Amino acid sequence: MLYIGIDLGTSAVKLLLMDGEGEIKNIVSKDYPLEFPQPGWSQQNPEDWKKAVLEGIPELLRGFDASQVAGIGAGGQMHGLVVLDEHDNVIRPAILWNDGRTAKQVDYLNNEIGKEKLSQLTANIAFAGFTAPKILWMRENEPENYAKIAKIMLPKDYINYVLTGVHCTDCSDASGMLLLDVEHRCWSREMLELCGVSEGQMPKLFESYEKVGTLLPEIAKELGLPENVVVCAGAGDNAAAAVGTGTVGEGACNISLGTSGTVFISSEKFGVDPHNALHAFAHADGHYHLMGCMLSAASCNKWLMEDIFHTSDYAAEQADITPDKLGNNRVCFLPYLMGERSPINDTNARGTFVGMTMDTSRSDLTQAVLEGVAFAIRDSFEVARALGIPIHRSKICGGGAKSPLWKTIMANVLNIQLDVPESEQGPGMGGAMLAMVACGRYPSVAAACEALVRTAETISPDPELAARYEVRYQQFKAVYPALKDVFAAMNGAQL
Prior knowledge:
Structural class: alpha/beta
Largest sheet: 7 strands, mixed
CATH architecture of the domain at 2-245: 2-Layer Sandwich
Distance between the termini: 59 Å
CATH class of the domain at 2-245: Alpha Beta
Number of strands: 24
CATH superfamily of the domain at 2-245: ATPase, nucleotide binding domain
CATH topology of the domain at 2-245: Nucleotidyltransferase, domain 5
Number of helices: 16
Radius of gyration: 22 Å
Shape: globular
């Protein structure tokens, strides 16, 4: 049998066709636009996602027996606010995970409702990217649209609705809304009340590997698929990527170098960072995880390469960064192009080069960006280590992990071994694997991971290079605190 994985990303949807033994048969990608109506704002039209998926699946299946498709599972960008009216029409463009318009609402939740109260109710505090502040923003700034809300959904849930007609979500994705009682895996009625919405406006909760329905007849016909194709609840992109890389069980770790950068630490038991610098979320395997998330990771390198250097030849730009230069770069980069989430939680933070001189070169800037992202990932590692969580090795995935140089930098900045999975299709592969569990191909997510996930290579740190990067990291750590008030003043915030 065949299984379709959907990776609903920020810039494109990636569709993956995989058999029950884990062999990837085909991959199709469909781009769609991203809107920035104001500085720090980020939104997308859900109809663009729908169009991309409905056009992409027939293309994915070209040359294959569509009658053999048994299930579909999606991993999708988290936190995005999708609102439907009573006729299930999209009310406004989805406000995305990296949108920073909700600073006022975040302050209200964290300071007036209180971080301690939020953590008790949801296991997390408010961040600008989370869904609940976006609902409050709509209530204050778009009252007419707010009054029309009949259903609140997340991006991949809208795709599942299009496919099945079912308003659904899963616990891993819902964890990032600030509306879920994460420990008990149910909606927090108190948080819903704070946002002025009812449980009836929320989608039905499932575990990621559970069946939510089958294809609507008209959708099955359009896609050329049988009507009995099972659609599972799917997962937030990071939880789906963790499944796709085999990051399940106690203490397993995955680093994702995608548009955003994440540190994902799975756990059998529920736990909360007492300082809430790391998110405490449900995992797609039915358990839990801690996660640190930086808003701009591989997108920093994309910005430098394409918007500043006007090139798409990433490898050529990295060719001059020879091993002797690693750990010796005098230029430091803060990767806060969209503000920052973990662990500083500051919408005013900005991307910054520090230490440039007259002999600073193009390759110095490229190296600084790669190193700055690695240092910011380490910030979340340091929080985990302070909680007593030992991390000696990690999986790594995402577009940035295709760069041998970046993987070397990352292994030495973190001073751990990095395992690179054989497949680089984290969220899409994870979605397909969840669909397999929903269809009964494997009895559990852990069993699917054990059977299907293989390691292609392991990168080990070099003690001398790791020591040089330790010095550079301590310098990096000092830059943001020195500029924090400057960033706030530049953005007109109250000091």
